Amino acid sequence: KQEVTQIPAALSVPEGENLVLNCSFTDSAIYNLQWFRQDPGKGLTSLLLIQSSQREQTSGRLNASLDKSSGRSTLYIAASQPGDSATYLCAVAGATNKLIFGTGTLLAVQP
Amino acid sequence: DAGVIQSPRHEVTEMGQEVTLRCKPISGHNSLFWYRQTMMRGLELLIYFNNNVPIDDSGMPEDRFSAKMPNASFSTLKIQPSEPRDSAVYFCASRLGGGTHEQYFGPGTRLTVT
């Protein structure tokens, strides 16, 4: 059974700092890994999708990496801003077509 | 495109009442997913449809829960009778194509059962 873990559960950083969020999964047989952002009381916004054959994806200040063999992904946020404050979720999709979610990292960027 | 649309956004009901949540997927998407989010269990997949056909409903917690997709542009999730432990945020998501593609989420319905 696929299990997805995110560390840390919460993170507080000063504005301008670069930061890394971690995601690990137990079954390396995945189709892709998706990073989402969730603002309080809102839905999920897709940030980046990495296919199983890819090593990384970039969008603006965000860079996500994938190491399928070790069951790990990282989300790197450069030059963090207060507007980046949110919960970040990673999710993996496998042969069952289901997205299995991690428990999330609550990020607070202090101005 | 308006994205995935869900209604209502908030629902408060009394225990024992029937609740119906609605979802309109992104036009052209052929897969639709219903999720539930709680503090205790995080985000869980309840059921998903492919081309309007239920493919996997193993996440549906009990027979009180049922979902339908009568056509490509509409789906419902029904709880009858509702119980306080059903209180959660219910999300609908849609996807174009197979498992390698992104899922796009709606804003969710916050359900409170008193």
Mean residue pLDDT of chain B: 93
Would you tell me the structural class of the helices and strands of chain B?
A: mainly beta
Number of helices of chain B: 0
Tell me the total number of β-strands of chain A: 11
Low-pLDDT runs of 5+ residues of chain B are none
* Pair of chains with the largest interface and how many residues each contributes: A-B, 26 and 24 residues
> H/E order of the elements of chain A?
EEEEEEEEEEE
Main pleated sheet of chain B: 7 strands, mixed
The class by helix and strand makeup of chain A works out as mainly beta
Helix content of chain A: under 10%
**How would you sum up the major sheet of chain A?**
6 strands, mixed
Oligomer: heterodimer
Shape call of chain B: globular
Task: Please work out how many helical segments of chain A DSSP would assign.
Answer: 0
| Strand tally of chain B | 11
Distance between the termini of chain B: 36 Å
Round the Cα radius of gyration of chain A to an integer and report it. Answer: 13 Å
In percent, how much strand structure appears in the residues of chain A? over 45%
Summarize, please.
Chain A is built from no helices and eleven strands. Chain A has strands at residues 4-7, 10-14, 19-25, 30-38, 44-51, 56-59, 62-67, 72-77, 86-94, 99-101, 105-110. The model of chain A has no long low-confidence stretch (mean pLDDT 94).
Structure description:
The complex is a heterodimer of chains A (111) and B (114). Chain A is mostly beta strands and 111 residues long. Helix content of chain A is 0%, strand content 60%. Chain A has strands spanning 4-7, 10-14, 19-25, 30-38, 44-51, 56-59, 62-67, 72-77, 86-94, 99-101, 105-110. In chain A, the strands form 2 sheets. In chain A, strands 2, 4, 5, 9, 10 and 11 form a 6-stranded mixed β-sheet that branches. Chain A is globular, with a radius of gyration of 13 Å. The mean pLDDT of chain B is 93. Chain B is globular. Chain B is built from no helices and 11 strands. Chain B has 114 residues and is mainly beta. Helix content of chain B is 0%, strand content 55%.
